[in-house]
Structures are given as structure tokens and as C-alpha cells.
Design brief:
This protein is of the alpha+beta class and 153 residues long. The protein has helices at 19-29, 38-50, 95-107, 121-126; strands spanning 2-4, 7-11, 54-61, 64-73, 78-86, 111-116, 130-136, 142-149. It has one domain (2-112): Gcn5-related N-acetyltransferase (GNAT) (Aminopeptidase), CATH 3.40.630. It is globular, with a radius of gyration of 15 Å.
Length: 153
């Protein structure tokens, strides 16, 4: 996927040992305090590397990964969006939506679901997901479930 001149989507399955990837995933876990999510992000990176039903892609610009999307494939038609993060300097350029569109187009799921915090609810709604409250995060913040289903024609 070409997202902008000089930017492309790369499969990170064999490159998940990069600390840069873990740090970017950590911003998706806790944007205000990414260091709090760094150990969880490192564990996630190891899962992407080891588990065949997990996939991780990143948007690269000038050799630097500026966005990541990670999925868990439940079966041929359903997947969980586990991680989605865009670096601060690359935000508001459509990368998050472009990565979601890539997954929809390339994997052709009929259902995508995942969980997010309140600060990303409107982003998922703009990308066509339904969003509803679904419990609490360990921090006490409300957790939201987002879902997208392909339209039946």
C-alpha cells in the first residue's frame, strides 16, 4: 500500500524485534504515557513474531516505521484488530484509515472487532465501525468495543 510519496506498507512479521515497533505500539496502549505500556508492547511484539494467526504491518517513511496495525485472525472471516498506532509526527494524514482499509481489502473479513479507549472512539466511528461501551480498563477508564461487518449485497 502506498499511502503518500515515499511511504509504503511493510510486513513486519520478521522485523518485530525492532524496539521502534514496540515503542509505537506502546503509544497505542497509552498515548500520554507510552513508557507505561512498553512492557505490554514488547510482549505483543513477541506474539506477532511467534504466532502464525497474528500479523503485523507498518507504514515506513525514510526507513522509519510511523504507523503499525496488528491483527489476530480468528478464522477465515473474522479478525481482531489488536494494535493500531500512528506516530505523533504522522498523525492526521489518513494513515490509520489507510491501514484499516488495507486489512479490509487484502484479508476480506466479514467481521473486524477490537477494543479501544475513549480518545479513539470517534476515529473508529469515522472508519465505519459501530462502537459501544464494554467494561473498564485496568486504569478504571471505560473500555469500548468497536465492530465492523461487511455489507451483505
Amino acid at each position: 500500500m502506498d499511502t503518500s510519496p515515499g511511504w509504503h506498507l511493510a510486513d513486519l512479521k520478521d522485523r518485530t524485534d525492532e524496539e521502534q515497533v514496540a515503542r509505537l505500539i506502546a503509544t497505542g496502549i497509552d498515548a500520554e504515557h507510552p513508557e507505561r505500556g512498553l512492557e505490554s508492547a514488547r510482549r505483543a511484539v513477541r506474539e506477532y513474531q511467534k504466532l502464525d494467526h497474528f500479523a503485523l504491518w507498518g507504514v515506513e517513511a525514510d526507513g522509519k516505521i510511523v504507523g503499525v496495525i496488528g491483527i489476530e485472525r480468528l478464522n477465515a472471516e473474522q479478525l481482531v484488530l489488536r494494535d493500531l498506532a500512528v506516530s505523533a509526527e504522522a498523525r492526521l494524514r489518513g494513515l490509520g484509515r489507510a491501514m484499516i482499509d488495507f486489512v479490509r481489502r487484502e484479508l476480506e473479513p466479514w467481521l473486524i472487532r477490537g477494543y479501544t479507549r475513549s480518545d479513539a472512539v470517534e476515529f473508529y466511528r469515522r472508519c465505519g465501525f459501530s462502537v459501544r461501551e464494554d467494561g473498564s480498563l485496568p486504569s478504571g477508564e471505560t473500555r469500548y468495543l468497536f465492530e465492523w461487518r461487511t455489507e451483505v449485497v
